[in-house]
Design the sequence.
C-alpha cells in the first residue's frame, strides 16, 4: 500500500502518538481491503457515541485519543444514549460515562449533531466526493442516492479518517465495485415504509456483495421509504449501496412468501406497551407526514419519537412540534430507538414500531418483543 512521505511520517509518530494510531488503523483496514493508497475525504460521520455501544473500554480509549487529536475535516456524530435537555431517570454510571464520551468528541472539534441522518441536516458535498460514514443507513443512502463515495465504516475507521482527513481507496470508493452482480426483483406491491424495510432486510441477507440492484417500481420511492430500505439493508448484511438502474445476470425473486418469512422473524409480538418511532431518526418529512395523520387525535399508548435536535428545532419553528405534541407524543432528541437505555425489559415487555432496524435491535439488544406496523396503521389503531 502506497503512502506519501507525509503519511509515512505520521505513521512513524513524527506528528504524535494519536496520529500514528490513526494511520495504523487506516493502514490495517487498507491492507485488509486491498487498498492501493489513501485518498482525501470531505466529511466523516462517527458512530461509537452511545455508551451502550462502546462501554468502559471505549470511554478510556476516546479520552486518551482526544488528548492529541483534532478533526481535519467536517465530522458529525451518531446519536448518544439520551436527550441532553431531558435528563432521564437513568443510572448515574450511564449518564456519567456518556458525558465523558461527549466531552472527548467535543475536545476533538467534532460537530455535536447526535444524529444518524446527517444527510438530511447538513450540506452535501458534490457527487463523487469521498466521505467516511460509520452509520450504515447513512452510508447506504449517501452511496445510493447522493452519489457520495464511502464504505460501511466502523467507528474506529471513521474516527481515524476524521483526524487524518484520509480513507483507504478500496471497495465502494472505486467505480468497479459500485456496480451490482445480483438483482432482487419484488413480485409484491411495495407501498409503506415497512414494505420497503422488509425488502431491504431480505436483500441484505441474501446478497453477499458491496452493491445490490433492485428491479422495482418506476415511480419515485421518496425519502421516507428510501431511508427504510437503506437502514434495513445495512442491518442485515454487508452491502453498502443499491441501485435500480442496472441489470444483472443473477436475479433473486422477492414475493409474498419471502416477505412473510422476514416479517415472522422480526415481528415478535401482537401488540406493545409503548410506541417508538425513529430508527433512523425521523426527519422533517416524517414529522410533517405524522402531523397530518394525528390532527385532532390523541394516542392511547405512550408514544416516543426520536429525532435530531436540528430537525426538532426546524419543526418547532413551523408549529409542527406543538401540533404533534397535542396528540400526546413525547419527543426525544440526541438519541435513537436503537440501544437506548430509555426502553428496557425492566419497563416494557414489547414495543410497537415501524422500523425494521429498530425492531431488530429492540429484539436482540433491548430484549423486548416488537409489533411491526407502518406509521399510518399505528396512528389508525392507537389513537382516538
Sequence:
Amino acid at each position: 500500500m502506497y503512502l506519501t512521505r507525509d503519511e509515512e511520517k505520521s505513521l512513524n509518530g513524527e506528528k504524535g502518538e494519536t496520529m500514528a494510531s490513526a494511520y495504523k488503523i487506516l493502514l490495517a483496514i487498507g491492507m485488509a481491503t486491498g487498498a492501493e493508497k489513501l485518498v482525501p475525504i470531505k466529511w466523516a460521520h462517527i458512530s461509537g457515541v452511545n455508551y451502550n455501544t462502546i462501554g468502559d473500554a471505549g470511554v478510556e480509549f476516546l479520552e486518551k485519543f482526544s488528548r492529541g487529536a483534532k478533526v481535519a475535516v467536517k465530522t458529525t456524530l451518531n446519536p448518544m444514549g439520551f436527550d441532553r435537555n431531558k435528563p432521564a431517570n437513568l443510572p448515574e454510571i450511564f449518564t456519567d460515562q456518556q458525558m465523558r464520551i461527549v466531552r472527548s468528541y467535543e475536545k476533538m472539534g467534532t460537530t455535536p449533531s447526535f444524529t444518524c441522518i446527517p444527510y438530511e441536516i447538513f450540506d452535501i458535498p458534490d457527487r463523487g466526493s469521498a466521505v467516511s460514514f460509520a452509520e450504515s443507513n447513512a452510508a447506504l443512502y449517501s452511496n445510493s442516492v447522493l452519489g457520495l463515495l464511502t464504505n460501511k465504516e466502523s467507528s474506529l475507521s471513521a474516527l481515524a479518517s476524521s483526524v487524518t482527513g484520509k480513507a483507504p481507496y478500496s471497495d465502494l470508493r472505486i467505480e468497479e465495485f459500485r456496480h451490482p452482480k445480483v438483482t432482487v426483483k419484488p413480485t409484491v406491491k411495495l407501498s409503506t415504509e415497512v414494505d420497503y424495510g422488509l425488502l431491504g432486510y431480505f436483500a441484505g441477507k441474501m446478497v453477499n456483495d458491496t452493491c445490490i440492484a433492485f428491479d422495482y417500481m418506476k415511480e419515485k420511492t421518496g425519502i421516507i421509504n428510501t431511508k427504510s430500505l437503506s437502514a434495513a439493508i445495512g442491518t442485515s448484511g454487508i452491502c453498502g449501496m443499491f441501485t435500480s438502474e442496472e441489470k444483472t445476470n443473477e436475479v433473486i425473486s422477492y414475493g409474498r412468501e419471502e416477505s412473510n418469512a422476514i416479517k415472522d422473524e422480526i415481528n415478535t409480538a401482537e401488540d406493545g406497551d409503548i410506541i417508538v418511532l425513529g430508527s433512523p431518526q425521523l426527519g422533517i418529512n416524517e414529522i410533517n407526514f405524522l402531523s397530518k395523520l394525528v390532527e385532532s387525535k390523541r394516542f392511547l399508548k405512550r408514544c416516543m419519537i426520536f429525532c435530531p435536535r436540528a430537525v426538532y428545532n426546524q419543526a418547532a419553528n413551523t408549529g409542527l412540534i406543538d401540533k404533534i405534541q397535542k396528540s400526546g407524543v413525547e419527543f426525544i432528541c440526541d438519541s435513537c430507538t436503537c440501544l437506548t437505555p430509555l426502553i428496557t425489559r425492566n419497563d416494557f415487555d414489547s414495543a410497537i414500531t415501524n422500523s425494521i432496524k429498530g425492531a431488530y435491535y429492540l429484539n436482540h439488544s433491548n430484549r423486548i418483543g416488537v409489533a411491526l406496523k407502518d406509521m399510518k396503521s399505528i396512528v389508525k389503531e392507537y389513537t382516538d
